[in-house]
Amino acid sequence: MNSDAVLLLETVNFAAEKHRNQRRKDPEATPYINHPIGVARIISHEGGVTNIEVLQAALLHDTVEDTDTSFAELEAKFGPIVARIVQEVTDDKSLSKQDRKRQQVEHAAHCSRQAKVVKLADKLYNLRDLNRCTPSGWTAERVQEYFVWASEVVKGLRGTNYALEERLEELFRQRGVQL
Ligand SMILES: Nc1nc2c(ncn2[C@@H]2O[C@H](COP(=O)(O)OP(=O)(O)O)[C@@H](OP(=O)(O)OP(=O)(O)O)[C@H]2O)c(=O)[nH]1
Ligand SMILES: [Mn+2]
Predict the structure, then answer these.
(1) What is the pLDDT of residue 133?
(2) The HD domain covers which part of the protein (predicted)?
(3) Across residues 152-157, what is the average pLDDT?
(4) Residue 31 contacts by C-beta under 8 Å, 6 or more apart in sequence?
């Protein structure tokens, strides 16, 4: 087996162990790991990006934000490039939710291209998930607000990956959200 394949298995296993007790917010409580795997798959399959560090960062992108994982741990295990991409897409949990959401809009344009690819795929996955089913406790208004906010973030990510941006634009169009 080639070394990239071995590395991806090591990475997806690490993410699965970290997210082992987490579930998505959908009524079926889907295992959380479906999300990072799906984000990495969007990047390779739809975005045509096969860069190993980007795919690893996609698999790991919510480990620091949502589990006990530290950046030092990611750097020691997966190296500085992967750790830096994850850092770029990680919200500062010490901020209020409102400030975190605002920071994403402000920071999007200043991310590296690698981080922008992960962010585009993360938003694409989550918007498709919202179209598939509504998270428990979310109103239709909250769903629509997420689309509007996501479009503000995606504005700062444009010019990065045409295929992913086209698919996002179509989802915004369907919701009557102007990009
Ligand atoms: N659509 C959807 N999202 C779910 C579901 N379960 C968990 N999530 C996660 O919820 C986050 C979006 O919900 P919010 O209420 O906006 O954010 P919060 O988790 O910080 O409270 C996303 O986090 P994230 O990936 O870190 O992205 P981001 O939107 O915070 O950048 C998404 O992955 C689900 O069933 N459907
Ligand atoms: Mn995510």
Answers:
(1) 97
(2) 32-127
(3) 98
(4) 19, 22, 23, 24
For residue 31, the cross-strand partners are 23
Pocket of ligand 1 (CB under 6 A): 24-26, 35, 62, 65, 122, 126, 129-130, 135, 146
Token pair in block for residue 160: 């990065």
ipTM greater than 0.95: yes
Distance 62 CA to ligand 2 centre (A): 6
Instruction: Please name which ligand lies nearest the alpha carbon of 118.
Output: 2
Phi-psi domain of 26 (left: phi exceeds 0; alpha: psi -120 through 50; beta: other): beta
159 Rama sector, left if φ>0, alpha if ψ -120 to 50, beta otherwise: left
- Region of 48 (left: φ > 0; alpha: ψ -120 to 50; beta: rest) is left
